[in-house]
């Protein structure tokens, strides 16, 4: 865990992130929220190498009518467990990445205090839609099939995502930066300080840069302000330390994969 | 518009749904929330046949740094416009289906007053994920291509979604009904009265029944409690009247499409 100021340690519950070990994945959006807020959390499967993943599986991947502690079932990780925050003083367990971010946003100070919190969630949901579309470039026709068994379809899907979808999303993010220019100065998407919209859009840009390096290199000039935002956020307090730490896991065979044949040729 | 009790008309702002005309689409999840809550709304593109869709396009499909009224840009419809609810007394415009449902949930009485509101959002997000996967059965490799140009890929994708994904989601929804048995009596997914989780899951079940009638017929016995919930909700106040009205639009060439070759053979 990152060292945290003692004050913050006392005012937050012991948050537990429940996710697969060894990959950034969708868990990364939640990690980034904690890291930029400077609030401690336990990454259960990565920190407890012995029994951590069994705990995650028991809560998030069971076939019972409850995840744990009388909470409803979870469709799939990531989930967040917060001892003491649920009904009757039990643990609260909630799932779905944008839902967890919405819960944490208000509690970690990562949203404006007014209606702006809906602008933040709107951006995060849209970035997560792009995240899903990029995932589908290597799994267009079968979630449970190997990439090698859907390679022809992947070539078509990746072409459509790179040529049509990525510029549409990038243009939208850039218009958002322009909308927020007065408050955000090109550094933030909503308001004058960091929100989980910034970290979520950043992570998707980072993953796409890993998956499609040639495509991104070719488009940097076209989306100059977006990539200035991307580079600038790496210097943000909390994020800089995190990216240099061992907690930041490398991309491998998760959502963002680098298959050279799917990139711009 | 449905007739509404005068009391409710006075206590709600004049909600405006901004969406494409003529199809249920993602706008339907928002329509259903208003209809079961008995709260008036204007379906801009469908009610104003002359200029309504121009208004939607001008707000949700422009290329400017703002949607309207100083709100940030919208990636795509649906969006919700609420005159007077934004900063400085202007209109608030928010987009992304689950974000709009989250906003409305608390204001229309469609979520529990405690942490249960996160259970509702978790379910709605998961149902909307299934909605997207079913959309992709007819557009697996190119959002901007015709179905006819990706028919071979669609056959593979539809097979995977019908055989692997639909039973996984249906099993999850059914476990949720079991979790809530004491409060919901099999009628509701969270708590003892209707929430937007119920309407959202219902709409996805309804759309899948249209798209894949043979698949659903074959699985009714396997997911008996889920289809009892589905049939039962049609009798819910607000929903029954709506389904019998002209406001309920037929499925056609939107998210849910009936291509017999993609159904179980």
Automatic annotation (TrEMBL), chains A, B:
Q: Which PROSITE patterns match?
A: GST_CTER (PS50405), GST_NTER (PS50404)
Q: What SUPFAM superfamilies does this protein's entry cite?
A: GST C-terminal domain-like, Thioredoxin-like
Task: Tell me the CDD domains matching this sequence.
Answer: GST_C_Sigma_like (cd03192)
**Record domain GST C-terminal: where:** 113-251
Domain (GST N-terminal) spans 14-112
InterPro entries according to UniProt: Glutathione-S-Trfase_C-like, Glutathione-S-Trfase_C_sf, Glutathione_S-Trfase_N, GST_C, GST_superfamily, Thioredoxin-like_sf
Highest taxon, organism lineage: Eukaryota
Q: Which PANTHER family match?
A: GLUTATHIONE S-TRANSFERASE
Give the protein's recorded name: Glutathione S-transferase
UniProt source species: Zasmidium cellare
């Amino acid at each position: 865990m990152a060292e945290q100021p003692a004050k913050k340690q006392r005012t937050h519950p012991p948050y537990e992130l429940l996710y697969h070990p060894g990959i950034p994945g969708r868990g990364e959006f939640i990690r980034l929220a904690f890291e930029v807020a400077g609030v401690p959390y336990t990454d259960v499967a990565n920190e407890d190498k012995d029994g951590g993943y069994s705990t995650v599986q028991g809560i998030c991947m069971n076939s019972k009518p409850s995840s744990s502690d009388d909470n409803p079932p979870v469709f799939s990780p990531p989930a967040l467990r917060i001892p003491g925050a649920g009904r009757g003083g039990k643990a609260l367990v909630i799932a779905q990445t944008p839902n967890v971010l919405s819960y944490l946003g208000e509690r970690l100070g990562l949203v404006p205090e007014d209606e702006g919190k809906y602008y933040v969630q709107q951006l995060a949901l849209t970035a997560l839609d792009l995240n899903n579309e990029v995932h589908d470039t290597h799994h267009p026709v079968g979630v449970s099939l190997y990439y090698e068994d859907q390679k022809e379809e992947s070539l078509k899907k990746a072409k459509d995502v790179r040529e049509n979808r990525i510029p549409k999303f990038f243009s939208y993010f850039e218009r958002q930066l322009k909308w927020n220019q007065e408050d955000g100065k090109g550094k933030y998407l909503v308001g004058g300080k960091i929100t989980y919209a910034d970290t979520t859009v950043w992570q998707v840009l980072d993953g796409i840069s890993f998956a499609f390096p040639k495509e991104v290199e070719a488009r940097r000039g076209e989306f100059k302000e977006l990539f200035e935002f991307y580079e600038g956020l790496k210097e943000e307090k909390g994020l800089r330390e995190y990216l240099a730490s061992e907690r930041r896991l490398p991309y491998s065979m998760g959502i963002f994969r680098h298959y050279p044949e799917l990139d711009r040729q």
